[in-house]
Amino acid sequence: MNKIKLRTMLEQFFVEDIGERDVSTELIFGKKETGEISFIAKEDGIFCGEEIISLGFEILSPENRVELFIRDGAKFIKGDILAKVTGKITDLLTGERVVLNLVQRMCGVATLTNKAVSQLNSSHTRICDTRKTTPGLRMLEKYAVRIGGGFNHRIGLYDGVMIKDNHISFAGSITKAVEKAREQIGHMVKIEVETETLDQVKEAISAGADVIMFDNRSPEEISEWIKIVPDSIVTEASGGINMENIAFYSETGVDYISLGFLTHSAKAVDISVKVSIAAC
User: Fold this and answer.
1) For residue 279, what pLDDT is reported?
2) How many domains is the chain built from?
3) Residue 280 located in a structural domain
């Protein structure tokens, strides 16, 4: 994860929440009073957010001391202490909500991704995300997908050509769309084509697509259609795939399954921040 970008994001989040000052905390506590807070899991999950905790409290004050008892990607259970932060009470109380919100969100994405990977249970097919991320949090959510055992699809509109049904309609055909894109892109940029019929798959192959997506197709359809796809072309399944039916796609031979729900429907993991009375 880009720490320079992460620092900028955290600073913006703190500015949004703190504004001019934390009125409640400043009115009750002096600037020299110190304490300790602990991040405690209230349910099981996959941890993701060590840099959020470490860098977040460092931004508030370099004197804050962070102890991490778990690393990104590790499993935790209800009751586990994930981290402790010691420092000025004003820093701890002012920063806890922003940090906690992000950690809960990222743990939720990582946990859901891990569950999807386990449910698929395939030695060949990989789980990947989509662009259906929370605006402003894409870097963090896609990082959480990787931590959960998944892989990233394109990051945005800028790092890969993805020709969808509307592109095909406006261009006139898959062949025309691929040709126009191929004429102008460099050798490092891949072209993916979304297909819904066997004829479209055949056209995408002839047009020279690098990646072919089977959109909203059943495991049986994919198993048949994939037989005509050369090994040099990467295959992807997407649409209509969920936790209940994902296992049926494990034997199709498809290279990737992209799941929008990993990010747009992930439930935040329940984590609380508790004050330690014995803090020094």
Assistant:
1) 44
2) 2
3) no
